[in-house]
Amino acid sequence: MTWCRFLLVVCSAVSWARAAEPGLAEDTLPEYHRYTELRRALVGVWLQCPSISRIYTVGKSSEGRELLVIELTDKPGEHEAGEPEFKYVGNMHGNEAVGRELLVFLAQYLCNEYQNGNETIVNLIHSTRIHIMPSMNPDGFEKAYSQVDDMKDWFVGRTNAEGVDLNRNFPNLDRIIYVYEQEGGPNNHLLKNSKLSVERNPKLAPETKAVIQWIMDIPFVLSANLHGGDVVANYPYDETRTGSSHEYSACPDDKIFKSLSEAYASLNPVMSNPNRQPCRKNDDDSSFIDGTTNGGAWYSVPGGMQDFNYLSSNCFEITLELSCTKFPPEDTLPIYWDENKDSLINYIRQVHRGIKGFVRDYHQNPISNATISVEGINHDITSAKDGDYWRLLAPGNYKITVSAPNYLAITKKVAVPISPAVVLDFSLESFSERKEEEKAEIMQWWKMMSETLNF
User: Which of 6-20, 120-134, 286-300, 428-442 has the lowest mean pLDDT?
Assistant: First the structure.
């Protein structure tokens, strides 16, 4: 993101931030941050922890509000080779407000605990590039906030200012992958080289376009989007294969997605409670298992952001439903923070699972866009610009094949524990080098035969 845009955000908010205490104590939590207050809170984190944070924007909403992101890492503003990228996105539905506030407080917490020397947080900041977008739908939030208390729930503010449900507005890649499963075709990066067509698509809301470009520009590895209305961790696929309203729709990485969802749900006492009653009397939560559910088994969602991440990029995303009430009273926010704090941190840590490494040629030059395939899992990922890659995997034994145009493919076996990620580097030999090598071998053989036979 350009420095001009970054400075615009800072200059418009810094006057408010200077009036606030830089410590950002917990007693600032029980209030909803409207747009200007949200900017002030994020700038406050940046002012307190400038060496590990950066504020940027990925675009603007329909009404011109910035889609703000705060980044927390040891080298803000740059992708460090070998370091995974993680993101949280909140408030996609403007009237689902708990996630928005939890992400504001998460940014404050990471800053405070880093300065306090919390070993877990320090290690996380030094090994991960964390991006936090508290609100993807700031227009919807402002509309929902403006309603009287008993109306702040199911409908008002859900959509953006143009009436678009952002979680039904992403390109429907599920339908494409379901065809490819039957007829053959790519199993990943289904929008490759399609940035221009995304920008020109009149059906996509500005918020959707901005987030699509963000997903395609940064090599995210793991993500979660935060919602409200129930309490469960939801994993792909969200849209059913047959068009049924309820049908378990496993993606190729079903095993690791279950594990990722459990990593969040298991530390949330409400989400993981086997005796928890449904949020509403007539709710069907029969698909919920230990606080997790497959999306399609719960209810089918076409055009969702979760599946778009998985099918358009290397990013694995789940959906977190954090509260039965979408816009609860402000004084209940500390309760939601207590319920979710450990889960939010633990989920970030999951980015350091599976395998990781670099793909290079024989001269140690990075190979970008190399394909990393796992035998038995029909979903490939690709290497980033520095040749670095991260492949989330559940514990087990795997065969990993790396290939790239004009290079010979290599396969390696690896045993993957629960954590941390196993380092597995690959050096690929180019076809041209192999031809030169074979030519040299032939010449050596001819020389030997000539000497032996006295030619």
Answer: 6-20
Q: What's the pTM? A: 0.90
pLDDT at 436 over 70: no
Q: How many residues does the chain have?
A: 455
Q: Are 52 and 125 in contact (CB under 8 A)?
A: yes
| Helices 254-265 and 333-349, axial angle in degrees (round to 10) | 140
Residue 56, beta-bridge partner list: 69
348-369: burial string, b at 16+ Cβ within 10 Å, e else: bbbbbbbbbbbbbbeeeebbee
d(Cα 160, Cα 11) in Å, to the nearest integer? 26
Residue 420 contacts residue 353 (beta carbons within 8 Å): yes
- Kindly provide the residue ranges of all beta strands, DSSP E only, lying in 272-403, ordered along the sequence: 292-294, 316-323, 355-361, 371-374, 377-382, 388-391, 396-403
Residue ranges in 251-372 assigned as alpha helix (H)? 254-265, 295-298, 305-312, 333-349
Number of C-alpha atoms within 13 angstroms, CB side, residue 5?
13
Q: Determine contact, residues 307/174, Cβ cutoff 8 Å.
A: yes
Work out the average pLDDT over 142-153.
Answer: 79
The CB density around residue 324, as the number of other CB atoms within 10 Å, is 17
What is the pLDDT of the chain when averaged over all its residues?
Answer: 91
Beta-bridge partners for 53: 72
**How far is it, in rounded angstroms, from Cα 90 to Cα 75?**
24
Contact by Cβ (8 Å): 48, 22: yes
- The per-residue DSSP string of 51-73 comes to TTEEEEEEEE-TTS-EEEEEEES
* pLDDT tens per residue across span 65-119: 999 999 999 999 999 999 999 999 999 999 999 999 999 999 999 999 999 999 9
- Residues 372, 373, 374, 376, Cα dihedral to 10°: 170
Catalytic positions are: 321
Contacts of 352 (CB under 8 A, 6+ apart): 84, 127, 128, 419, 420, 421
Q: Are strands 377-382 and 371-374 parallel, antiparallel or unpaired?
A: antiparallel
